[in-house]
Amino acid sequence: MSNSKLTLRSLTATAVTLPMKRPLGTSARSIDDACLLLVDLLTQDGIEGRAYAFCYLPSIARSLVPIVAELSDALTGLPLAPLDLAQRVSRHFRLPGVTGPLAMVASSVDTAAWDALAKSAGLPLATYLGADLQPIPAYNSNGLGLMSPEAAADEAEALLESGFAAVKLRLGRADFHQDLAAVKAVRRRLPDRVRLMVDFNQALTFSDAMKYALALDVEGVYWIEEPIRHDDYRHMALIAQAAKTPIQIGENFTGLPPMAAALAAGASDYVMLDLDRIGGVTGWQRAAGLAAAYNREVSSHLFPEVSAHLLAATPGRHWLEYVDWADSILQEPIQIRDGMAIIPSRAGNGLSWNTDVVAKYRLD
Q1: Among residues of the chain, what percentage have pLDDT more than 90?
Q2: Strands (DSSP E) along 179-326, which ranges?
Q3: Helices 280-293 and 100-120 meet at what angle, rounded to 10?
Q4: pLDDT, tens digit (0-9, with 9 covering 90-100), for 174-212
Q5: pTM here?
Q6: Quick one: which of 161, 183, 51, 175 has its CA closest to 106?
Q7: How far is CA 322 from CA 53, 98, 276, 336, 351, in A?
Q8: How are beta strands 8-25 and 30-43 bridged, if at all?
Q9: Cα–Cα distance for residue pair 98/91, rounded to 1 Å
């Protein structure tokens, strides 16, 4: 089937909340359930495209269902051309702005459109984008929240199942000595070959971040993620210059302008793209090109199922963040072998809902 013949028939959304196997305690808040918005796109020819957004709160997930229905009315009958659809969605949300939850909707519609296009071509999304189906290095980002040092060390060991060679530990306690104790306990327990990323979730002041980053330089940490407010690029650049440990930011880039500002400021050594915020597949491709222009390695934030396809097609691909939060609603969750994410060979981005589980956890 020629992609040029595809037209959009409908968009629908379903809000669900899924219990996490390993609750996540961060400096911002504790998360026990994954609140997702499942987006389904249907073409006039019956081809389906799927995506999901991570909404953090049940109220956000619920509130987006009617917004997707309204957007469906505005887009029905249009050609399934992601660039044009992105512009139409942007115009539809021009007055409130394509930020926050509305950026999640826009990104999910774009991702679902690319899924349908890849399916119409009979190709995995990565192949459709011009890449080989190569395994992608993944780090285990489940759990490892703000817990006691021994509990963190125990959980870090457990997270090495499936051959993971990297894990991420959350920091940001009120007392940095407790953070440091957790880092030391986890690092002692992990084999030397295993990389340890740490994430402050924007918990620190600039002055504290300067001190703590230097203290972490001797602890065998692979990267320090978001030590201060995510958009304070001037001070983030000073931290990146002072610390030997690489600085990682980017999950909060909403589109290209903030990413361009961060790169111009030299705010980080690495960048991390979030499918929900960067603009779906279309936004990711643009951002990957910008990162390449600045010679920055690119990692992913959440959404491992789709992000694996996108990293395969990304110059300077780095690490896939693996979480299992959506596994229960997926017919075929992404597989990890020897610490590598295996991109499925089936057409599209690999998302297919387990309808019985969706019905069980649906938010009305």
Answers
A1: 95
A2: 195-199, 223-225, 247-249, 270-274, 297-301, 320-322
A3: 100
A4: 999 999 999 999 999 999 999 999 999 999 999 999 999
A5: 0.96
A6: 51
A7: 15, 27, 15, 9, 15
A8: antiparallel
A9: 9
Residue 90 in contact with residue 71, Cβ under 8 Å? no
Angle among Cα 255, 308, 158 to the nearest 5 degrees reads 115
Cα distance between the two ends of the chain: 37
Cα 78 from Cα 15, distance rounded (Å): 25
Nearest residue to 236 (alpha-carbon basis) of 206, 197, 208: 206
- Under 8 Å between Cβ of 179 and 173: yes
Which residues are within 8 A (CB) of 256 and not within 5 positions of it... i.e. 6 or more apart?
Answer: 283, 286, 287, 290
- Which two three-digit tokens encode residue 268? 């980080």
Q: What is the dihedral of CA 14, 345, 276, 113, to 10 degrees?
A: -70
Per DSSP, the three-state class of 278 is helix
List, as one string, the DSSP characters of 93-138.
Answer: TTTT-S-HHHHHHHHHHHHHHHHHHHHHTTSBHHHHTT-----EEE
Length of the chain in residues, anyone?
364
